[in-house]
From TrEMBL:
Cited Pfam families: DHFR_1
Family: Belongs to the dihydrofolate reductase family.
Family matches, as InterPro entries: DHFR, DHFR-like_dom_sf, DHFR_CS, DHFR_dom
Keywords: NADP, One-carbon metabolism, Oxidoreductase
PROSITE patterns according to UniProt: DHFR_1, DHFR_2
Entry protein name: Dihydrofolate reductase
Length: 174
């Protein structure tokens, strides 16, 4: 199986917040459209709490690999694993079988933290606000990740805040 890139897709406030009380602390319709376009057809790797935050139903057009320590966690339309390494292995196999060119890690905080050292690419929506929350994204170290793309995104009529969309690529050892 070819090496399939591991991509993180996340929206993060200036102060690092990505969630509050099991949900996203903002409404960003513009960003959700980009999220759908970025992830369509690609395996999604996510934690149980993140999956439950969007109604415990798989998002259409994307295979879901849920990481849960609960052995009995079994829902239709998703595959469940007990840990990150099993999840990455399964997601890469699903990507190879379907011809997807990458796998997408979509949260939550603990899954991002565990997988951060293995990520090849970060698709980050920087929410232009400091927001109260209880779940955080790891700090992006510029010595490890190079910003390769960035664009300002004004708040649309269904967005709480303006954002900056950026793509970061892991630097290769020289």
């Amino acid at each position: 199986m070819a090496d399939i890139p591991i991509v993180m897709v996340v929206a993060v406030a200036r102060n690092g917040v990505i969630g509050r009380e099991g949900d996203m602390p903002w409404k960003l319709s513009t960003d959700l459209k980009r999220f759908k376009a970025l992830t369509m057809g690609k395996p999604l790797l996510l934690g149980r709490k993140t999956f439950e935050s969007f109604g415990s139903r798989p998002l259409p057009g994307r295979p879901h690999v849920i990481i849960s320590r609960t052995a009995s966690y079994d829902l239709p339309g998703v595959q469940t694993v007990r840990d990150l390494s099993s999840g990455l292995e399964l997601a890469k196999r699903l990507a190879a079988d379907s011809g997807a060119d990458e796998i997408c890690i979509i949260g939550g905080g603990e899954i991002y933290r565990q997988a951060f050292d293995q990520a090849d690419l970060l698709h980050v929506t920087h929410v232009e606000a400091d927001i109260a929350g209880d779940t955080y994204f790891p700090q992006i170290d510029p010595s490890l990740f190079e910003k390769v793309e960035e664009s300002a995104v004004p708040a649309g009529e269904k967005d709480n805040y303006p954002t900056r969309y950026a793509v970061y690529r892991r630097r290769t050892a020289s």
